From TrEMBL:
The keyword Cytoplasm does not apply. Keywords: Cell membrane, Membrane, Transmembrane, Transmembrane helix. PANTHER family: CHROMATE TRANSPORT PROTEIN-RELATED (PTHR43663), CHROMATE TRANSPORTER (PTHR43663:SF1). Belongs to the chromate ion transporter (CHR) (TC 2.A.51) family. This is Chromate transporter.
Length: 481
């Protein structure tokens, strides 16, 4: 077992290195590289096969395994997925050499197309190597537990302080445009990987069109499931140069929309929802987490729009400003960002039945959110490693990931609007002077958004986000009181 203090060395790994690694790490490009090298040197294929299957993982007891992942990674999962992945790679692969770098790249390629946070899935994978499937579950829980407990505490304190507390609201009023800036930056970062053709490393115009059209479809209030599945299928046809079926599907989506609009009218905003959480009962919260977790390709930013439309727009039991606050809290905790679901479950349970149900709601929605990544990682990794190299299936996920960018872009605008201009309630306040003062704060919020966006692009260090959120919370006490 490694020395627990070794996390200090691992935290020095560069975010930029992981970004470059993430971009270069696609199963097809890796497979092509392996093939070309094998052609040049016939004896190299056996070596490469060994690199992709060998393991030097230590056999740890479940207790020691839990402590290893809890202490080295769970407690220090600050700075988002890029930093978390860098930490795991540096400690386990580079320093302790549990597996070869080639195998790590192959495993990481698989997890990039699976739902769920990739860092948590990597911990589960290494736990499986050390102690079997039970070890994978233990390692995953160890990684997630610190962030879950902290988010549970934050949710309770948020409810205890009361959303009407002026000091509390001042800090979160400043944080809302900062969160909007974070999602804008994330949209750009994810697009860097999702609309790139892996063979040429250039922008794939078809994936870019998928992203733009999905954003347009969201504006037209087409259900996101339709767009994601449709562009996955369309890109499968494009990858196989079946232009006519691809073109027909592309045209039919808008023909179908026009027919619907003529006979039923333009869909309402809530038509984007499935209606699985009209009320925040425990079973509804679990199903909400389960579906959102299944949709979380590329991490939490894909799950955000789905939870928002179900809880804020369709259900109406979670205010928009509270939803934005939970994303802000999730950004500063050592946890996968999907931990924001814990906060949503807590607030939903509190609305449905008081404090006891609030804690239960937080637990059940978190279980639902993480269940898909546990299931895929632990039960089917070996099968998925084979399937991901199937060109037909891989192209479907490429199209789906391109379409996801459009969904995230729309949600970033939806969060930006109320975070800058305030809510309708602000402008209906009495006396009128107070409403005017609230309106004047919109200019301050817009400035905060631009400053936050500039900081996020200027400073890529993993601590930049945490420092920005803390600074925003403090600044709010001076700007909005």
């Amino acid at each position: 077992m490694a020395d627990p203090t070794s996390h200090q060395t691992s935290t020095k790994s560069s975010d930029q290195d992981v970004e470059a690694f993430r971009q270069s790490n696609h199963p097809h490009s890796h497979e092509t590289k392996a093939t070309s090298e094998g052609d040049q040197n016939p004896g190299s294929s056996n070596t490469q096969d060994d690199d992709l299957t060998s393991s030097n993982a230590p056999k740890l007891s479940l207790l020691r395994l839990f402590w290893y992942f809890f202490y080295n990674f769970g407690l220090f999962a600050w700075g988002g997925p890029v930093s978390q992945i860098a930490l795991i790679k540096e400690q386990i692969v580079i320093k302790e050499k549990w597996i070869t770098l080639a195998r790590f790249q192959r495993v990481f390629a698989v997890y990039q197309i699976l739902p769920g946070p990739e860092a948590a899935e990597l911990c589960m994978f290494f736990g499986c190597l050390s102690a079997g499937r039970i070890g994978g579950i233990v390692a995953g829980l160890a990684f997630i537990l610190p962030g879950f407990v902290l988010m549970l505490i934050a949710s309770y304190l948020y409810t205890l302080a009361g959303v009407e507390n002026k000091y509390f609201n001042a800090s979160f009023r400043a944080l809302q445009p900062i969160v909007a800036a974070m999602i804008f930056k994330a949209t750009h970062k994810i697009a860097d990987h999702s609309v790139i053709k892996h063979g040429t490393k250039k922008v794939d115009p078809f994936l870019l069109i998928a992203a733009i059209c999905t954003a347009l479809n969201s504006a037209l209030r087409l259900n996101i499931f339709i767009s994601l599945g449709l562009y996955g299928v369309i890109y499968m046809f494009i990858a196989r140069r079946l232009w006519i079926p691809a073109g027909m599907l592309f045209i039919l989506q808008y023909v179908g929309y026009a027919i619907y609009a003529v006979f039923r009218g333009v869909p309402s905003p809530v038509s984007l929802a499935l209606g699985i959480a009209k009320t925040p009962s425990l079973i509804n919260l679990f199903v909400l987490g389960l579906v959102a977790g299944t949709l979380s390709f590329g991490g939490a930013y894909t799950a955000i729009p789905f939870v928002q439309v179900e809880a804020v727009l369709k259900g109406g039991w979670l205010p928009q400003r509270v939803f934005i606050d939970c994303i802000a809290i999730g950004n500063v905790l050592p946890a996968p960002l999907v931990i924001f679901a814990t906060f949503v479950g807590f607030q939903g349970g509190h609305v449905d039945g008081g404090l006891g149900k609030a804690f239960a709601g937080a637990v059940v929605i978190t279980l639902g959110m993480f269940f898909p990544c546990f299931l895929f990682t632990i039960a089917g990794h070996s099968l998925l490693e084979k399937l991901v190299h199937n060109k037909f299936l891989s192209s479907f996920f490429d199209g789906l990931c391109g379409a996801v960018i459009g969904v995230i872009a729309v949600i970033s605008f939806q969060i930006l609007k109320p975070s800058i201009q305030g809510t309708e309630r602000d402008f209906l306040m009495k006396p009128e002077e107070l409403a005017i003062a609230k309106g004047a704060q919109s200019g301050i919020a817009a400035v905060l958004f631009m400053v936050a966006l500039a900081v996020l692009y200027k400073f890529t260090n993993k601590w930049a986000t945490i420092v920005l959120v803390i600074s925003g919370a403090v600044a709010g006490q001076f700007l909005f009181i």
